[in-house]
Amino acid sequence: MKLHSAFKKLFAMTFLFVQIVLPLHAAEYLRNYVCVVRTNMPESTVKFLNEYKDILEKKGYSDYASYISDYLKGTFGSGFAFYYNGVPYLITNRHVVSQAESVNAIFENEDGSTSEYKNLKIIAADEDVDIALIQLPASYARAGLELDTDKLSDGDEVWSAGYPALGEEPAWQLGKGNVTNATARVKELLDPDISSIIQHSAQVDSGNSGGPLLIKDDNARGGYKVVGINTWKASNRENTNFAIPANLVYSFVQTTISGTATNKDIKSRLNQFKEAIAEEDFLDTAKFISNDFVASYGGDNFVTVISKAPKTVQDLIVVVFVYDPIEGMREALAYTVWNNFQGKKGVLNYEVSKTEESDNQANVSFNINDKESTSVWQKEHGNYKLTEFSAVKRTSTSSKNSFTAAANGEPMGFSIEDPYFLDIKGGLLYTMDSKKSSFCLKASFNLSDIFATGIFLQYPKIALDTNAPDTLTKMSTFGLFARLQIPFRYNRFMVEPFGQLHFGFANFGDFDTGRTVFGWGLGVDAAYMLSSLIAPEISFSYQNNTYSDVNDKIKTGNLAFSVGLKLLAF
Asked: Which of 392, 418, 202 lies closest to 307, judged by CA?
């Protein structure tokens, strides 16, 4: 599977702490133009995250709930002021503001005080190049940094400026390094068909994203000019950082302000969507998922995807969720949307059957393999994004699911779902005919919420000779089973009635007395979710078995009581 936006996040979020001592006057002067960018999430998103955190905690996903708690403390990056046609703007990375409704820009003054500009509007964001443009207010009275679009050379001296985290708070840092590859091409970070990127060794840490990469120029404001935006850091190499070149920054600002950007109408946006759907993985589809879509459907969909998607998809989405829960849920929704267009041999035949566009919203219908799916697109950060897609379903057992009900302040109620993949248990097997107990062991694998298959091992004591009922034989029984189950869940508790069919061999390997075993069983499991990874359980069942060889058949009834664990295999 290719790596794209998810590993952009990982590059940007895996850091080493490095400091460097620099001339004080240069650092202080430069701070007039470089700022902390703090994001303001929509109230609906904050409300959703708080409620979803509580729901995850109640349902046993305590580790995921803790990641949301950390995320709700707030996120920040860096940015810098820049003038275009005499109007001040703030430039940063798109991923810094991707969940934001607005941002606050905090500049540190030379006397140690700060100047803050609140609730600034995000004018536009380029998802392919990872740039965002923010409107500074009329009250902004500072100057801005200048861009230098000349090509750099390997070995050139460069500087990084910004506010990486020190502890949990942003702290000013000016780092010095060199260009180590002036024309780096890393397709996982930026499509080489769009541009190369700048690889350098100046310090970049968590919170530097969106800050400027600089060269010294005594004639420029602050003594520096901007040659790029610091955006990524390689986690598996030392001093390997990447910046978006200044010529891309200037082009983005120019086309945005002039209104000549190519992705403003729904038609061009749907062409981009078509290209993303045609990719061999789902990652490019994430840029089409709006924050509103995440807040409305992300909770249910995330749990479904991490329970039932392929292992590689689960692992990637969980890694992203740890750093950024909203992005993790966005990636999960992207997978679900992308997967609806995929068949066994690639992308299904589909066409846009209807489009209605008005103001900042468009209603689009897709005909996917002769099946109609509807969608709603709204503009977010200047780009059309999905807010509804009929093929994305909420997990529900009635008219409302537990997540939706809880979000509306209603009781969570029951749900029918089993998020665990592996079930291992062992215990006592009581044979009713002989009135003897022995040992049994079972391992099952959930193929869906209601269907599982697995293996069993039992040692029942039965009478093979009906003329000598007191002469008991301990049978080593091994086999396979298939089971239908209905997992009723209420918060952390789960009760799962089931029925099964099983087939196997007794005394396998001893062909003189070997027998086949066929039977059925009914029972119930009860489990308590300690976390999203593990749940202890108890099980009680009745089994009816028939042991057959060429001469006769022997039927027995068994009662099984066992204890075990349900596991989610990440």
From this structure: 418
